[in-house]
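Form 7-S
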Amino acid sequence: MRTLLLTCCCLFLLVTSSLATSAIVRVIPLEGVINPIIAGFVAQHITEANVLNERAVLLSMDTPGGLDTAMRDIIQSMLASQIPVIVHVAPAGARAASAGALITLAADFAVMAPGTNIGAAHPIAIGMGQQTTDDGESPMMEKVINDAAAYARSVAEQRGRSGDWAEQIVRESLSSTAEEALRLQVIDAIASDRQQALQSLDGRTYLRDGQPHSFDGNDVVFSEVAMPLRERLLNVLSQPDVAYLLMMLGFMGIFFEISQPGVILPGVVGVISLLLAFFAFQTLPINYVGMLLIIVAMVMFILEVTVVSYGMLTVGGVLALGLGSLMLVDSPDPLLRISIEVIGSTVLAVLTCLGLVIMFVMKSQRRAPVSGLEGLIGEQGVALSDLHLAGRVFVHGEHWDAIASEDVSAGEAIEVLKVTELLTLQVRPLPVDADETSAEPIEQRSE
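Output:
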């Protein structure tokens, strides 16, 4: 009897848990530039939602686009999902541009809020610049566009959407409002919020393995997920402005370490910053000519410290740094470019730091020696014997052999002009003005 009761309780808990899980709609934010970090985060939660057999996954989208590889990773996870995937472009003013448009096409259901837009998916090849195929001068870019157009049409037709519209957003950068997209059967509904979106999809069918299934949009429980701290940090590092600042910090750290060896801290910070910057650059359309110009600028700045160029290396370095910064990220989308304000302030900061380093280096080079034989030059002392050509002097607490081109009487104040190879001091009588001010200390030392 006890065993039967325990079994019933377990079955009840399993059924209750299953019913509770089946009512959950997992809400995944898909905001900002689509990069490998965001792609991994979205794919992971789609997989988890399938394992838990949740009712659906809802991607809350507002994106200007992103990398083709990251987009394809997300689309693959969506096409492999057994539970329905819904894309909701919201709130008002949001967009599903470029890669976001293709992700929307790959969803089982697509809903847009009023005042949103979708499209403009013309590809941009990383490191190839803004090349076009209008005059047929870029076969490589033509291949990229043809591949993207075929992929967009394939995804759209698989979900029963307009293949012609999907190809147009790739080839012609076409963009449509929510109302236009609904009229062209690109999306399924227009809704301002999630609850309204699911209610508008209630009873609609989606296909799995060729079999139609009906979607239940009632009595759902939204489960919002947030990006973990690690992914948030990596995502922030992937922003163009942050990546650029990290690169400049890395170069300046290495510059300080080379100009002032042994400090260690600037070199460590510089290497770490450069590694983080290179990680971020893999998610951005980098122009490698711009990168080379920045490297050349840093080399010029380092040479300025050691080579007498009368400022020409600094001028060349400033020009190379400014041009390289402007060319570094090659994208027509403002969100994928480095802002002019960041470039201007960074170049100014670099020049200020460089000026301070050069000033301190020049001061240290011009500073009179304070130790060794060179430190004796300019020292004052007193003649211990008459100096017609040679004799003895007392300088810096020691007795020295000395020579003089002028006659010097014993007890007369002298000044060291040079130290010869034989450790003999070349001296001269101390000028009258200096003699008056330093006579007392010299007499005391001679005693």
